[in-house]
Structure formats: C-alpha cells, structure tokens
Amino acid sequence: MLTFVGLGLYDDRSVTVAGRDALQAADRVFAETYTSRLVGAELDDVADALGVEIELRDRAGVERDPEPILDAAADGDVVFCTPGDPLIATTHTDLRLRAADRGVDTRVHHGVSAESAVASLTGLQNYRFGRAVTLPFPYAHGGDGVPESVREGIEANRERGLHTLVFLDVKAAGSSPVGPDGDQFMTADYAAELLADDWRPDALAVAVARAGGPDPTLAADRLAELADDDFGPPLHALVVPGELHEIEADALTTFADAPAAVVDDARR
Fold it and tell me: Phi/psi of residue 224, each to 5°?
C-alpha cells in the first residue's frame, strides 16, 4: 500500500488526524520538500513530533528513481508525504500511476493546499480562479523578466474574467537548478516587481504571505506599489484578480487593505 499524505501548510499540527494515523502506522515514510516547505517547521520537527522516521527524497529520487518507494510499498505499508496537498499544486500523480502499474494499492489523505488557503484568505471565490501559473527566477528559465507563458496565462484568465494564482519559485535542496546562494524562496514583492516591469505596473494584485500559519499577511494594491513592500518570511504567493464580484471587492478592501480607488479601477 502506498498512501499519499498532505502535511498542510504550517507545522506538525497541520496534518489531518487521518494523515497522522497513516504516518504513525506506516512501515516506512518518504517525503520531498523540493516543491514547497512548511512555513513553521522543518521536516525533522514533524518527524519528532509524530514519533516517526522520515526518509527525505530529492527530485531525482522521486521522479527519476522512484523504485525504492515502490518496492517498499509492494512489500508493506508506505507513506509518501509532502507539504500542502500531494496531488494538487504539488502533484505526484505520476508516482501514483507507477504504483498502479505495479499493482500497488494507493490512497490519499489530503492536506490544506496553497490554492484553497489563498482563496479563503483573500475572499476571492475559488470557482472564479483560472489556470494557475508559476513565476520562476530569471536565472532558472534562462531569460530576463517574466516568461511569455506566464504573461499569456494571466491575460487568458483576465479575458475570461478569472483570477490567476501565481505560484512563486522555490529553489531549495533537491531543486534544479539550485539557487546560486543556497535555498531561495521568491518573495511577493520581487514577483510584483518582475510583473510590474515586464507586464502592467498598474494592475491590481494581492500578495499572500505564510498562508496556513498563525500570522498570514495580505496586501492588495497595484503591482508597482506591492513591489516596494516587505511581506516578511516565506512562503509567499501572488494573485492577479480578474473581474471582481462586489463581495470580493469588499473582502480585498477589508482584509487586504486594498485602496478603494484601485479596486474601483479594477472593476471598470
């Protein structure tokens, strides 16, 4: 049996009770943290709190050489866990398909994901989000500024009146390429600067920092204004709203301190 467990977004208390039980009952536990990190704890903290041993795998050890995970799951109960949810933004469907091809049963204990947390915190309705995009560091995509695919993704959503969740690049151990100064987590202000310079400085956007933790930060303003702010420690995300419903507009002014004039301009 191979069980996928989402650890949620903050610390060892963010995992569901069902996920915790699966972790503690497993013969072996594997994890990856190259696609995301917990905001308030390291993986060792989770292992200590739950009384389990967690074997960390890098990207190659999950995507190119998953055989140790699959072999263990063929012979016993194995958990593969990730921050967030293992099969949404941090998707490991390929690993699940490989298990199915080998006749290994799978199940999933979901965790709170960035997608659901961002929609909940901002008040932007989840069914009004279009396709998410990921904004990479310029060095990671071999170019300058914002890749055309990111700009096109945002514009395609806006043409349909839909919001865009912009995932921000994470370059940590196991990533490829690794950040030039070790672990790097793109901040919302840096992302806003990239988009302001390479797309539209006057566009309304929402910075979200540490979603899922006890001290999340929200700020809504024009991209050029957000570029000058400091949103504190990671992890961050950015949302570029499309057409705003009246309640969504009220939520951004109430919970994210959006200037009324900026929201009014975005609704026209």
Answer: -65, -30
| Residue given tokens 């301009």 in the structure block | 265
List pLDDT tens digits, range 46-88. Answer: 999 999 999 999 989 999 999 999 999 999 999 999 999 999 8
Rounded CA-CA distance 207/188 in Å is 6
CA distance 149 to 141: 11
Residues 138 and 257 in one domain: yes
Q: How far apart are the C-alpha atoms of 174 and 115, rounded to whole Å?
A: 23
One DSSP character per residue, 137-202 reads: -HHHHTSSSS-HHHHHHHHHHHHTT-BEEEEE-EE-TT-SSPPTTSSEE--HHHHHHHHHHHT-TT
Residue 96's CATH number: 3.40.1010.10
232: its two tokens: 């504190």
